[in-house]
Amino acid sequence: MSHTLKYCRRNAHKVRIATQEIGGENPIAVQSMTNTPTADIERSVEQTKSIADAGAEIVRLTAQGRREGEALAPIVARLREDGYSTAIVADIHFTPEIAMIAAEAVDKVRINPGNFRTSGGELERLIEICRRRGVALRIGVNHGSLAKRIFDEYGDTPEGMVASAMEFLRMCRTADFHDVVVSMKSSNTRVMVHAYRLLVEAMDQEGMTYPLHLGVTEAGDGIEGRIKSAVGIGALLADGIGDTLRVSLTEEPANEVPVGKILAEYFNGRTAEFSVESFESYSPTEFRPRTAAKAITHSEITSEYDIIEATSDNPTHEWRAAILNRKDNRPVVIRRRYDYDNPELVAIYAAADMGSLLLDGLAEGVWIDAPALNEAQIHEFELILLQASRLRFSRTEYIACPSCGRTLYDIQTTLAQIKARTSHLKDLKIGVMGCIVNGPGEMADADYGYVGSSPEHITLYRGKEIVERNIHQREALDHLIEIIKRDGRWHDPE
Ligand code: SF4
User: Of 236, 243, 255, 351, which is closest to residue 32 (Cα–Cα)?
Assistant: First the structure.
């Protein structure tokens, strides 16, 4: 029996978030998050407005303590008075009591099953407030902050993330509460994509149709951050998975919105269909490389590689079908022409089209055929795309959080300074995280970490081990470089 591959949106039930409805046939909604201190009502209102003005339908604010939780009601009131109907979400870690305060003020509450207490009926109480006020809930699983119990059983795997989400979803279902959205974020695009697909399988098996919020965490900034987000989010959207999304960038929050819009709109109305004889060699939930060939850019192609060009309006499925129908095991380079002169657009589209094939192990090389761009730029985009898809690491990897109301220092400037001094250390992964509460877990596999520990103070990590605690920011970068030197992993720029 042959199978048909075509673009088809996953069937998710509708969830209302203020005036915004997501799921079903609704357009994919774009979100961003403030990075002002939430207790600073004035600045938070202004930044929320600037994100909404950029086109976001949903804006999230962190509420780490009572002061921040109590600031949410006046923030929402001010926005409504000023004519903003933007859906407002509170981001909660650790403290169920703050989630209850937030649920009295906002349109949606995000909780993290990895750190939300449930033993005393906290989730049921939160659900009751949400039900009474018409507030939605997001079960937001993060790869880097799984509960110890889950971690001990599954490790930090996609399976562990799914188990964590399913526990909470079952509790919601038992409480007959369905205004729930789920997310499975990771800074590792392979883990992220496979976790979402595994979650869809698990939900299908239990007859659940909760809508999904997509995102790659700690994607960094600039073109790297855009390509990394497009790889993860695009791989899922190409298969019709996803109802809302956030592109996390270590930049001004409003910058995230146009990138999110490009992705949200890119997959609409794809018509081309393909057939596949067998899926035997393929798994959507694990990396199964077809060959052991080196991952390459188009300028490195040798006679060993075959080129597969996609020309339809549905390139991801066109390549997938062509590769799965092959009888040989020669490595392949996937190629597509992009007739745009905007480099950012070419990079985002190519990453969104090609990422899925790279993450699943179906393709070994990429060819972005963009006549309007110069050769050096295309080569750079191809290398970043291979790195974002975890096939080939050719540059320093920065796992940088987008910052939020918990951030303890100016992360955008600091990231630029760290990059300026370390970007020649090609085999290192450096985490640059705004706070110590979520930072260390979420930079997961970084070699070194630069993490905010108190206002303008930094704790430095080697892997998961603390090397220097709470030193002033003005000396932190020099100390980080000293540590890298002591470890013998430093060399001077060429
Ligand atoms: S690591 Fe901390 S500061 Fe950065 S986005 Fe996460 S919670 Fe906010």
Answer: 255
Residue nearest to atom 1 of ligand 1 (CA): 439
Q: Please give the Cα distance from 381 to 378 (Å, whole number).
A: 5
244-270 pLDDT, tens digit per residue, is 999 999 999 999 999 999 999 999 889
Structural domains in the chain plus CATH codes: 12-266 (3.20.20.20), 278-388 (no CATH), 397-486 (3.30.413.10)
Note the helical H segments in 389-471.
411-422, 439-442
Which residues form ligand 1's pocket by a CB distance below 6 Å? 401-404, 406-407, 433-435, 438-439, 442
**Ligand 1: distance of its center to the CA of 452 in Å?**
9
Per the DSSP assignment, residues forming a β-bridge with 432 are 400, 450
Q: Which two tokens stand for residue 332?
A: 């392949």
Q: How far apart are CA 9 and CA 240, in angstroms?
A: 4
494 to each of 350, 427, 478, how far by Cα in Å? Answer: 31, 15, 19
Tell me how far apart the alpha carbons of residues 295 and 383 are, in angstroms, rounded to a whole number. 9
**Cα distance between residue 344 and residue 259, in whole Å:** 9
Q: Atom 2 (ligand 1): residue with closest C-alpha? A: 435
Q: In the predicted model, what is the mean pLDDT of the chain?
A: 95
User: Ligand 1 atom closest to Cα of 64?
Assistant: 7
Report which protein residue has its CA nearest ligand 1's atom 8.
404
Please list, residue by residue across 334-357, b when 16 or more beta carbons sit within 10 angstroms of its beta carbon and e when fewer do.
Answer: bbbebeeeebbebbbbbbbbbbbb
Please, what is the angle between helix 96-103 and helix 66-81, to 10°? Answer: 20
Give CA torsion, residues 250, 253, 258, 261, to 10 deg.
Answer: 100
Return the pLDDT at 1. 65
- Nearest ligand 1 atom, CA 404: 8
At 443 the pLDDT is 82
